[in-house]
Amino acid sequence: MADTDKALQELEDLFAAARSGRPAVPEHLNAAILADAARVQPGYQPAAPAQAARQPLWRQLTEALGGWPALGGLAAASAAGLWIGLAPPSFVPDPVALAGYEDSSTVFADGSYDMALMLSEDLQ
Amino acid sequence: MSATAEETSDDALLVLYANGDSRAAAVLTARLGPRVFGVAMRVMGIRAEAEDVTQEAMLRLWKMAPEWRPGEAQVSTWLYRVAMNLCIDRKRRARGGYVDLDAVPEPPDPGRSAAEQLQEGARQDALQAALMQLPERQRQAVVLRHLEELSNPEIAGIMDISTEAVESLTARGKRALAAALAGRREELGYSDG
Asked: Which sign, positive or negative, has the C-alpha torsion A91, A93, A94, A95?
């Protein structure tokens, strides 16, 4: 056992000595390696800068408006406007009246008046 | 390339080379050439063969550069693997080759006497001769583990085997080397004390 340990220790010492004496690459080999590198390299083209991928229309529009936060604000404002238009709060004047239109029932006293009949009379 | 080329990773240097940077090849050669050459010398045992293996392995590196995907593997691991396969191919083609003991340099040590240096040279020759007696895969594993000081997982990647197989190869290789050298202890100047 002791002999084996001693033999392995001597082997470790030999490994250590071998590691410290790594052979130098001969000059002619270095030159040959670099000549190969220079010969192979011209076949390579420098990598082209990555072309920006064409973006779909919806993404271009989103970005033109200011991105997702702006789009969110726009959607909220639109929803609020629609809601106010459909069910205006009591303190807001009726937009239909403000525009100068009147309820159709006030125009035609006779609710049963037939538009087709009126038109046919006009044509006669 | 910037002035800190020596700090640039092998990965980045290879990409620079593929993009036409002329200095990248010189830095990679200075960094990786000695490692490949050292391993090839130990595994092949013949200087001329080791030189051919080194040049061919580096040539394959240059040719592979445009397809290299940084971060997926280490350049040195890839290169060791190519070199080891080239060694195996050459060994298969030239069964029964001789061992060129002069191919393995003696560790320089100016502090030692001429006699000590001769003895150390004889020991290194004996180590190389013993290495050449090992089966091919054992020799590769021992050289990569004990002379290149690579980790077992890295050697497993190079040799395309499991870590356990690497451990087994190196353990058997070391035992065989110790046994081969045991018969030459006196000749190599090892005392029994």
From this structure: negative
pLDDT tens-digit profile, chain B (193 residues): 554 666 789 999 999 999 998 899 999 999 999 999 999 999 998 999 999 999 999 999 999 999 998 888 899 999 999 999 999 998 887 765 555 555 555 555 556 666 766 777 888 888 999 999 999 999 999 999 999 999 999 999 999 999 999 999 999 999 999 988 887 777 777 765 5
Query: Are B59 and A20 inside 8 Å of each other by CB?
Result: no
CATH 1.10.10.10 fits B108-193, yes or no: yes
Contact A44 B65 (CB under 8 A): yes
Distance from CA of A78 to the nearest CA of B (A): 49
Please check whether residue A29 lies inside any domain of the structure.
no
- Tell me what ipTM this predicted complex has: 0.82
CA distance B38 to B121: 17
Say if domain B1-104 classifies as CATH 1.10.1740.10: yes
Q: Helices (DSSP H) in A1-124: which residue ranges?
A: 2-20, 27-40, 57-65, 67-86, 95-98, 104-107, 115-123
